[in-house]
From TrEMBL:
Gene Ontology cellular component annotations, sorted alphabetically: lateral plasma membrane
Signal peptide: none
Molecular function per GO: beta-tubulin binding; GTPase activator activity
GO biological process, one term: bicellular tight junction assembly
SUPFAM superfamilies named among the record's database cross-references: ARM repeat (SSF48371)
Pfam families, A to Z: ARM_TBCD
Name this protein carries in UniProt: Tubulin-specific chaperone D
Length: 201
């Protein structure tokens, strides 16, 4: 007796489910040149909304593609992180830094951290003593109520957390005699304001 139509449909559903659940496995990270180009063009691409969104979606798609095999990006991770950080550092040194560019660069960094894991990413963030005050100032300049730039605050807190592991005397940075404006008080205040992110980290 031939199988019923219901059984045939059930078999087809099982086959489709099996195909859907198959995962693509990669053997190397092939998009390094594309990522490099996206990061090199970041300052130019932010000038137009369409270019900015398209470039970021391309970067995020690449990160999502390797979500199951994030270790494949490791040979290129240092170079990628350096490019993003250098873009940020160069911009904050300008007399009138472009907040849009800074926030966009941090979005790229957050996507990278989401794919590879923040514990791996912080290993490649600059953590010299001289990095402490610029990172703290940049974090202080953020609006904690701005939902559009939460990635910036998230990565800055990650960055600050790895810098603080380095033992150094905070008083060496204090130029102000006013205790309320001391580096320590500024640091404590900014961490309280961003308490949610600190707990999450």
């Amino acid at each position: 007796m031939p199988p019923s139509t219901a059984n045939k449909n059930s078999d087809l559903d099982d086959d489709e489910s099996c195909c859907t659940n198959k995962k693509t496995h990669f053997y190397e990270f092939k998009e390094h040149d594309q990522v490099k180009k996206l990061l090199d063009n970041l300052p130019e691409n932010i000038k137009e909304l369409r270019s900015r969104e398209r470039s970021f979606e391309q970067f995020r798609f690449i990160c999502d593609t390797y979500q199951e095999q994030p270790h494949l990006i490791d040979p290129f991770l240092s170079d990628i992180v350096d490019k993003i950080i250098n873009t940020i550092k160069q911009e904050i040194q300008n007399e009138n830094p472009c907040k849009l560019l800074i926030d966009q660069a941090f979005k790229y960094m957050h996507s990278l951290a989401k794919m590879r894991g923040y514990k791996r990413i912080v290993q490649y963030l600059p953590h010299e003593i001289t990095d402490f005050e610029p990172v703290l100032k940049l974090l202080q300049s953020q609006d904690p109520t701005n939902s559009e730039s939460w990635e910036t605050r998230f990565v800055l807190l990650l960055w600050l957390s790895i810098i603080c592991i380095v033992p150094f005397d905070l008083e060496r940075f204090d130029a102000s005699e006013n205790q309320a404006d001391s580096i320590l008080n500024r640091f404590l205040k900014i961490t309280v304001v961003n308490e949610f992110f600190i707990i999450f980290i």
